[in-house]
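Bug report (template v2)

What were you trying to do?
Predict the complex of my protein with P-hydroxybenzoic acid.

What happened?
Run completed; filing so the output is reviewed.

Input:
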Amino acid sequence: MAEGRLRGQPMRFPTRTQVAIIGAGPAGLLLGQMLHKAGIDAVILEQRSADYVLGRIRAGVIEQTTAALLDRASVGARMRAEGLVHHGFSLCVDGERQRIDLSRLTGGKIVTVYGQTEITRDLMQARAEAGLVTVYEAENVTPLHFDTAKPILRFEANGATHELACEVIAGCDGFHGICRASVPPSAISLYEKIYPFGWLGLLADVPPVDHELIYVRHPRGFALCSMRSKTRSRYYLQCDLNDSAANWSDEAFWAELRRRLDPAAAAALTTGPSLEKSIAPLRSFVAEPLRFGRLFLAGDAAHIVPPTGAKGLNLAASDVHYLLEALTGFFRTGQDAALAHYSPRALARIWKAERFSWWFTSLMHRFDGAESAFDERLRGAELAYLMQSEAAQASLAENYVGLAF
Ligand code: APR
Ligand code: PHB
């Protein structure tokens, strides 16, 4: 729904803006908010409804730099009030627990546990309060002429076709979006790794098993104990890719989670009815470059990380930071040269997060014959090293709290 219709008035669709943003996920909304603060006009086109966007359940570990960016965008207040500051997390390897003291190992850094859905809600509210235009339920959004200085977005809404003229298109339309797909195949390189397992997630209104997150490596498979608040828990189990959430009763989920935890955590686990249960595949993916004339890719449109380490939203935020710098330079100087740095700068950080997410995923999951006996032994040795070596833990901690922009 467009903002105009939210107030019960007929929507007049915008025909001109400086930046046309496709996608009202965290990347598009944060970019829109930062542009607004910089005095640059932007319109967001989103194919779904606002309620649909808010219904998606995603990870919720916010790096310190992401939190600072949300503050700078004036949308950090609720995160600061309701988010949980975490100074560490635990690794549990074959029943043995090791705390990773993030603050001690990184010179005082922390992460904030706050659901991505809540960030999306805060950004939507800020946008509505500022009277900025978001066209929800925009169909067949098509980026055109982005190899010229006068790109256009064509879209359908309310049964009619509309055109939005702009100077720049920001493709914040997620992994399945139209922007990356609109680029000539010869102009883009895609790098991808698919993992041979999925995560079965369960959300429940029960107190978390621990005040910090626990990442579990177990012969039966990976598990993760996370949370949304002191009364809402989010748990995951590594599962077969062909499995279905419908195969898992709540009782079966809790019993399997308990099996993978160490005895103290298993005894402390509070169970209850699930609010949601779903399976997500795991993927590593990067598109290069991220700029095609006046079209820019940011967030999941440009890259995917497996969820181990919760880098997805944080990477979207660093993309927005770099893209904002490029766009403010461009609108200040009128020079295309200001746009040139976005892709290399964003990609340098993206690949570091890809490496970390791949490493943490590879280390903690069971591969079931998808790797050689030699690789399996090496992984055992790496886990043993990580559990004992403060230097190895410092590297994990440095990446977990987030590398500098
Ligand atoms: N036209 C308009 N909107 C579109 C189109 C399209 N053709 N295709 C996709 N979209 C919208 C989607 O409906 C979605 O709301 O783009 C939005 C993309 O949002 P996200 O998928 O949340 O991606 P992003 O904003 O980059 O967020 C990155 O979200 O997926 C997680 O792990 C990821 O945490 C990371 C964060
Ligand atoms: C989550 O809370 O959903 C979550 C937390 C940490 C992760 C992944 C997911 O690494």
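What did the reviewer find?
Residues 1-8 have pLDDT under 50 and may be disordered. The radius of gyration is 22 Å.
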